[in-house]
Design goal:
The complex is a heterodimer of chains A (652) and B (225). By secondary structure, chain A is mainly alpha-helical. Chain A is 76% helix and 6% strand. Chain A has a domain at 522-648: Histidine kinase-like ATPase, C-terminal domain (Heat Shock Protein 90), CATH 3.30.565. Chain B is α/β, with parallel strands linked by helices and 225 residues long. The N and C termini of chain B lie far apart (58 Å). The chains are: A mainly alpha (652), B alpha/beta (225).
């Protein structure tokens, strides 16, 4: 139980802590859940602010887009700018270009609302570019559609055609999933082509749009689509002069069940179109009554733009019917409403009618206005076209530059890569080279060493030969002569002299034997050592040999053996003669490369530093060092002396 | 004359030959031939094989008179040639060489019937050696004997098992008790049979009559403490 108390406490603290931290989250959830209806915009905006505070990036993007949409529908430019800024910030933090593309999109919408069409066009273009980079074909297609619609508005039909066709490339593969965009694209394209006097092509796209319309799951919208298309397709026949077919289509549209109530706009359009066909056919009265019905409907639904069109058409019809007052009246209203709604087409028409309907100064004034407007429209149209073209051109140029830069980059990367590879290869080659050189140098060095060693061996052998010759002459000539003398002295009874001469003879003989090289090939080195030791062995001077069997003497060079032999002999003689030792130990040991001999006695020892090591030891040291060996001597007074020889078996 | 023993004496020094001749005259009546070179000596021995072969050969080891044309340039070469040709002749080495190396080399490889030293030799010793040789026996002069013995001692000292046997033998009442006590360097036990063989060899090497004598000799010679 006791244990649970602190646990419980901890839990409590945790819960409290949780409660605190969860407060903003709770309200966030509340805002997001309840962002519906009239409060949607407000809640969304609050949610975004909270999300930013809580740094929940993933939701910021989504919510901002949602908020922007709502703002656009409400024509709230401030809301759009707000969303745009949030998305731009989000992009800066997360580097998610989708956010940036959307920010451009909303900037475009913002400008569209403000009627800054070229700015809008520019931002659509920017947004489109990013979506192309993101390979988001749906968004790309939608931007292209928006651009195409803008171009139609600015009467840039050719530009529109290009843009729409490009949009189709992105949207058509998606087929029914993007039917709305696709339908709009087809319609926009058809519209543009209609204006370009290519009714057949226009109709083909309208028909395509009609095929796609079946995918529209919302019944009312689907029906609107169909009705619009009746109108549009009919218009293409009108353009071709095929009035009968056009009338049939318009009438078919108008026969739609309770169209006047359900879809007044479509009804008005169809009726308007039908009436204009009648007008063209010269059935002026029929046209006027149609136009009037349309005007009534439009007045009811306060579709001012449409009203201006209707007035303009009525003016034209009355004029044809020579009812000039009525014509004048409608022309003035049409002009006024046209100006109000920026419906330049109608304004121009009305001005044209008025020029004809009025006289004198009034007519002049209208004509002047007409010409001015026409001119300004023309120049504006041209500059717009140019601007759009420029935007597209520059973008394309940039894209080209980008691609060329990309290619350049790739080339550079490849170059860097290959350079890197070359570098690594270079390093490897260099490393291998160094290794090779090192190896070679090593071989050369070892070879040189070997050659030097061999040369030394030869030198040693040559010296040995010399020694043997001296020994021989000592033995044969000097010792022989002494023996003769000895015998003579003996015969002449000079025994004392004879004895001392005998000693000299023995000394010379010994010297000769010492100098002469024993025949190493006849007796094994092991036996030679034993023999050598035997020569000096006495019960009161015992010599022990260790490790003589551990070395394969056959593999050891004769010069080394000779040196070892002489070292042992010299050491034994020293130990026996000077050191007064009673025991001497010879130890042989060796590794794969080296051969070590240690000779230690229990004699009186001597001062190693006293530089009077005697000619014997000096000779030994020289012999050992001639063979690249190491000679060390260690002596302690009253304790004994140890000589150590470390010789490499092959001179390395 | 028919039954006289035929002897060949080879030495490069005429004085030595004279000395040997004098000594031999003191000993008995022999048919003695002398020569200064090994090549001639070998030729004489070979030629006499079919008529009246030499029975004894006295030879020095080193010859200073050898030239470029000399085939056998020393006593060792001569003895080798004789042995290689299967010539039946008893060989005595009479030389000044006392270095164990040469002595051991000659004795172990060429197995002469006698080894005498010029410096210590007299007619009596030559006579004794001669008798031994004719009786198909061996005679090494005392100094050479000592050399060989010392060599054996050195070798025994290197033999760890031999040393163990010599040290342990006085402690054990029976030889069989040594089994299990004597161990090889790797720790394994040496069998009784091997111990007995080792003891026999040691007795021979140290010229001992029995095991007690062996221990005494070993102590005397400094093999063991």
């Amino acid at each position: 139980m006791k244990k649970e108390i602190p646990l419980l406490l901890l839990f409590n603290v945790f819960a409290v802590f949780n409660a605190f931290t969860q407060t903003p989250k709770d309200s966030l959830n509340f805002y997001l859940d309840n962002a519906k209806g009239s409060k949607k915009v407000t809640y969304l905006k609050r949610a975004i602010t909270l999300l930013e505070d809580l740094k929940i990036d993933s939701l910021i993007q989504q919510t901002s887009i949602e908020y922007a949409k709502e703002s656009y529908f409400a024509k709230d430019t401030l809301g759009l700018t707000f969303s745009k800024n949030k998305l731009q910030n989000h992009f800066k933090r997360s580097k998610d270009s989708f956010s940036l593309a959307k920010a451009y999109h909303f900037a475009a919408l913002n400008h569209k609302i403000k009627n800054n069409l070229d700015s809008s066009f520019y931002y659509y273009q920017e947004s489109k570019k990013i979506f192309i980079g993101l390979k988001d074909s749906v968004e790309t297609g939608r931007r292209l559609l928006s651009m195409a619609i803008l171009q139609v508005k600015e009467l840039d039909y050719l530009g529109c055609e290009t843009t729409a066709v490009e949009g189709l490339k992105y949207i058509e593969p998606a087929q029914d999933k993007e039917y709305r965009t696709l339908i709009s694209l087809y319609q926009t394209l058809g519209n543009a082509l209609g204006h370009l006097n290519r009714p057949q092509e226009s109709r083909a796209y309208y028909i395509k749009a009609r095929e796609m319309a079946k995918f529209n799951t919302v019944t009312s919208r689907r029906e609107v689509n169909y009705l619009n298309l009746y109108n549009n397709i009919g218009a293409t026949y009108v353009d071709e002069g095929n009035f009968d077919k056009a009338i049939a289509l318009f009438k078919e549209g108008l026969r739609f069940d309770s169209i006047a109530i359900k879809y007044p706009r479509q009804y008005q359009n169809l009726l308007g179109s039908l009436s204009s066909v009648y007008f063209r056919q010269g059935k002026i009265d029929k046209a006027i009554s149609g136009y009037k019905t349309v005007l009534e409907g439009r007045k009811k639904s306060k579709y001012v733009y449409g009203e201006s069109v209707s007035h303009s058409l009525l003016a034209e019809a009355y004029m044809k019917n020579k009812q000039y007052n009525l014509a004048k009246k409608h022309a003035y209203i049409g002009l006024e409403l046209g100006k109000k709604t920026r419906n330049n087409e109608q304004v121009l028409d009305c001005l044209q009618f008025l020029t004809e309907l009025t006289f004198g100064e009034t007519a002049k004034k209208h004509f002047k206005e007409y010409v001015q407007l026409k001119d300004s429209l023309f120049t504006r149209e041209r500059t717009r076209k140019n601007q759009f073209a420029k935007v597209i051109y520059e973008t394309e140029k940039k894209e080209k530059e980008n691609t060329s830069l990309k290619v350049e980059n790739q080339r550079k990367e490849l170059l860097i890569k290959s350079e890197k590879q070359q570098k690594t290869i270079g390093f490897l080659v260099a490393g291998a080279g160094i290794l090779f050189i090192g190896f070679g140098a090593n071989i050369v060095a070892s070879r040189r060493k070997k050659i030097l060693f061999e040369a030394k061996l030869l030198q040693v052998e040559a010296r040995e030969k010399e020694r043997q010759q001296i020994a021989k002459s000592l033995h044969d000539e000097v010792a022989g002569d002494i023996r003769m003398l000895h015998l003579k002295l003996e015969k002449s009874n000079q025994l004392e002299e004879a004895n001392s001469l005998n000693i000299i003879k023995d000394n010379v003989r010994n010297l000769s034997h010492q100098l002469s090289s024993e025949s190493f090939d006849k007796v094994s080195f092991k036996d030679q050592i034993i023999n050598l030791v035997s020569d000096y062995f006495e019960p009161n001077f015992r010599i022990k040999i260790h490790g003589l069997d551990t070395i394969l003497w056959k593999e050891i060079n004769n010069s080394i053996k000779r040196t070892l032999f002489l070292t042992i002999r010299e050491s034994i003689q020293n130990a026996k003669k000077y050191a007064e030792a009673t025991e001497l130990i010879l130890s042989f040991s060796g590794s794969k490369k080296n051969l070590i001999l240690e000779v230690s006695d229990n004699g009186i020892g001597f001062d190693v530093t006293a530089n009077k090591n005697g000619i014997g030891l000096k000779n030994i040291r020289e012999r050992v060092e001639d063979l690249n060996g190491v000679f060390t001597i260690d002596s302690e007074l009253e304790k004994g002396t140890t000589i150590k020889i470390d010789i490499s078996k092959n001179g390395k | 004359m028919e039954n006289k023993i035929k002897i060949l004496v080879v030495d490069d020094h005429q004085l030595v030959i004279q000395g040997i001749l004098c000594s031999l005259k003191d000993i008995g009546d022999f048919d003695v031939v002398t020569t200064n070179s090994c090549d001639e000596a070998f030729l004489l021995i070979k030629q006499s094989q079919n008529t009246k072969p030499f029975q004894l050969l006295f030879t020095d080891l080193s010859f200073d008179n050898s030239t470029e044309q000399t085939k056998l340039d020393g006593g060792e070469e001569l003895i080798k040639a004789i042995k290689n040709n299967g010539l039946d002749i008893k060989i005595a080495v009479i030389t000044g060489h006392t270095e164990t190396n040469r002595v051991y080399n000659v004795i172990s490889n060429l197995n002469p019937n006698a080894y005498l030293l010029k410096s210590k030799c007299d007619a009596a010793e030559i006579g004794f050696a001669l008798t031994k040789m004719l009786a198909n026996d061996y005679y090494y002069t005392h100094e050479i004997h000592q050399k060989i013995m010392r060599r054996n001692i050195v070798q025994i000292q290197m033999d760890d098992i031999a040393i163990q046997v010599l040290k342990e033998l006085p402690n054990q009442p029976k030889i069989s008790n040594l089994e299990g006590v004597i161990k090889k360097s790797d720790g394994s036990i040496v069998k009784l049979r091997s111990i007995e063989t080792k003891l026999a060899n040691l007795r021979t090497d140290l010229n001992a009559n029995n095991n007690t004598d062996l221990i005494l000799k070993a102590k005397e010679l400094g093999v063991i403490d």
